[in-house]
Amino acid sequence: AAQEGFDAEEVEGALGEAGHGPLPVLAVVGRPNVGKSTLVNRIIGRREAVVEDRPGVTRDRVTYEAEWAGRRFKVVDTGGWEQDVLGIDASVAAQAEYAIEAADAVVFVVDATVGATDTDEAVVKLLRRAGKPVVLCANKVDGPSGEADAAMLWSLGLGEPMPVSALHGRGTGDMLDEVLKALPEAPAQTFGNAIGGPRRVALIGRPNVGKSSLLNKVAGEERVVVNELAGTTRDPVDELIELGGKTWKFVDTAGIRKRVHLQEGADYYASLRTAAAVEKAEVAVVLIDASETISVQDQRIITMAVEAGRAMVIAYNKWDTLDEERRYYLEREIETELQQVSWAPRVNVSAQTGRHMEKLVPAIETALAGWETRVPTGRLNAFLGELVAAHPHPIRGGKQPRILFGTQAGTKPPRFVLFASGFLEAGYRRFVERRLREEFGFEGTPIHISVRVRE
Ligand code: GDP
Ligand code: GDP
């Protein structure tokens, strides 16, 4: 719909530029010939075959974008697994395992005219263990007479079987409504190749702040053997650590543990490593040596995490060594040097004594929650309306630029687009950001605001 001087196309364009958040993933699994590919074609609204057979390319995964009732998501068709190599049971199991790793929700397709087979039962076990939301599709119900076959599939214990004819489209709408209920707004995991599995944490900070000590402290005896956990890349530099009842993936820890002492270019390698870790992570824990003056290097590392758009926690380490005086100056330094990241949750820790280690996980969780926050458009605009009324932009050159409306274009981190009647000054934009934070939280996350000006 056209909004106050912006036509729909302009709004769309601006949102496109701001980037939509990553889409949630739906996997379609089931035995061969139950109609998965046909169903995927239905879902993505295409008649032609899903598979583009490119010789020499092993097709082990096909992802398509789909939309239903205004919501977009990705569909993964697992139909193309090499059954000859794996054998049917193993291949179907592998698909389901894949779904466990990659998907936010699963459509499990069963051929209602055949009924539940042993292979189907085996997949049900896997799905149940995964704990992902499952929609049971009773396929090949081409007419009312097939409904009874569909009802038989209640026995699988996956809830209501949705009677569907993927071939003719019968019942697919109702099934997709169920799928939307099962799918989260955004995928649980988004970055890098590791979809699914534990949240990814980068422990960063300049040399000697205590990264290695902290890692050893939190890892302790509770290190998890990587291979035991499904859905984890076996990257030797990542470490799985059990903390606060959950498993976290600390990325790129090899560089922390094995200290390579490079004389020349050591800073360069250190910052390269920091950048790589930040890229792979969802949340950065920035360690600062509280016993020393906050340095330019500390700030540079913080900036790196902010610019990468990651959630962030700041941990002030070596708290055990602080006297009254140092504590006083530290607070002053934080106020003046780290003002721009005052939104980051803060923990005062000691990797040596273990002080406040238990506060680390809640802080990380807070930051991730802020990072994933989505403000509904209605609420955002009610807030913007009040803000503009109470605090209008200063008049410039006889004109008063006004925010007309806004929308959140994405999460991880939250991204906003504001549509305005004129150029908004930096000071005013900062004010808007501050008020947004006061209103909606966004603790532990940078937020991006871009402004579109009506010509
Ligand atoms: P996949 O191996 O699970 O991907 O199954 P396909 O999508 O390739 O379908 C296997 C066969 O079942 C094809 O011949 C389809 O035309 C047929 N089929 C798929 N869905 C339906 C349906 O809803 N009704 C009927 N009658 N046949 C279907
Ligand atoms: P990294 O270079 O960031 O990995 O830092 P290290 O973990 O190697 O620590 C550098 C030095 O600081 C070592 O001598 C540690 O023993 C010491 N250290 C680390 N954390 C603490 C702490 O919380 N308190 C005190 N007193 N010393 C610490």
Description:
With 455 residues, this protein is α/β, with parallel strands linked by helices. 36% of the residues lie in helices and 19% in strands. It contains 15 helices and 15 strands. The strands form three sheets. The chain has a six-stranded mixed sheet with strand order 2-3-1-4-5-6, sandwiched between helices. The longest helix has 15 residues, at 88-102. The two termini are 19 Å apart. The protein binds guanosine-5'-diphosphate (2 copies). Residues 30, 32-38, 79, 139-140, 142, 165-167 line the site of one guanosine-5'-diphosphate.
Question: What is the number of helices?
Answer: 15
> What is the alpha-carbon Rg in Å?
26 Å
Poorly predicted spans: 47-61, 80-85, 189-195, 221-235, 260-265
Question: Beta-strand percentage?
Answer: 15-25%
Largest sheet: 6 strands, mixed
User: What structural class do you assign from the helix and strand content?
Assistant: alpha/beta
| Strand segment count | 15
Give the overall shape, derived from the CA principal axes.
flat
Helix content, binned percent: 25-40%
What is the H-and-E element order? HEHEEHHEHEHEHEHEEHHEHEHEHHEEHE
Summarize model confidence as the mean pLDDT: 81
Task: Give every kind of bound small molecule, once each.
Answer: guanosine-5'-diphosphate
- Distance N terminus to C terminus? 19 Å
Placed side by side, the strands forming the largest sheet appear as 2-3-1-4-5-6
Subunit structure: Associates with the 50S ribosomal subunit.
Protein name: GTPase Der
Binding site for GTP 1: 30-37, 77-81, 139-142
Pfam families: KH_dom-like, MMR_HSR1
